[in-house]
Amino acid sequence: MTLDVRPVQEHEWDAAARAYSAAHPHEPLSGADLHKRQREQEDWGYGAATLAAAAGPEIVGVGAYFQNPGSYHPRRYTLDLGVLPERQGQGAGAALWAAVEAALRARDAESVRVLAREDHPVAPGFLARRGFVGDKRYFTSALDVAAFDPAPFAGTLAAVTAQGVEIRSLSELRAAGTPDLDARLHALMSDVRTDVPRSEPATPLSFQVFTEAVLGDPGLLPDAYLVAVYGEDFIGQTALFASEVSDLLFTGLTGVSAAWRGRGVATALKVAAARVARDRGAPTIRTDNASDNAPMLAVNGKLGFVRDPASVSYLKVF
């Protein structure tokens, strides 16, 4: 197969996303998703590129490197790599990685990370042969929305309410004219995300990144961006995001302020999110958690989320 590996051209974002999504059906991306990420990285001054492997007019694979604004380090990068299943084993992945590796070395990169499911037929061996070493494990899991029964959680929800906690949606908070809403949501996320287990240490999420990447995400569902409110305080959050290429809903960060953990707030937020998903007719909610995030894994297990095979974070140090 004769390949041309080069930056994705303006008319190729959808084709690149189709190739990536075919390789990673549990984490589908649209062309708009890929393009938005590239634009954001450039706007934030990060190092990023999205490359396509083209066989004639066909985009057979995509490789992207970028930087994580929530775990930012100027010399550490994240990799996405995917090749159409019917084109795997023909050199496209190797060619894409060779181009990405050369670009990262030219940037004096310290390391790059990539997630791969442990049951993937190609990825673990492909990465190991190129010097990647797996360390942290993550679980993605799915909730069958139609089968979800909130009744067993009535006692927990009543206890949360009895503590004076309300669950309010972003739509409701906006309609109520909540003062300094965006700044308060940013402060809440900054609070609850600091000790979430992750592969790289958390770094502060700037207000610009928060407003553009979270509030500005076209997939964000304002009715399913839920905030736990106690008096004037925001004490917890969860959010659901839709995708234009799938009928699945994807969970953003679920977190609760330290003083309120273990008091049912996270469960109340997740139950409320499942009700929003049911009302929308969504079939499935997907989420992911680090394998050592025992509290959230326990909440998801109680709610009925079913785990996929684990994904492994692979690290390559240059």
Automatic annotation (TrEMBL):
InterPro entries: Acyl_CoA_acyltransferase, Bact_Acetyltransf, GNAT_dom. It comes from the Bacteria. Residues 3-155, 165-318 form the N-acetyltransferase domain. The keyword Acyltransferase applies. One of its GO terms (molecular function) is acyltransferase activity, transferring groups other than amino-acyl groups. The keyword Transferase applies. Pfam families: Acetyltransf_1. Coiled coil: none annotated. Keywords: Acyltransferase, Transferase. This is GCN5 family acetyltransferase. It comes from Deinococcus metalli.
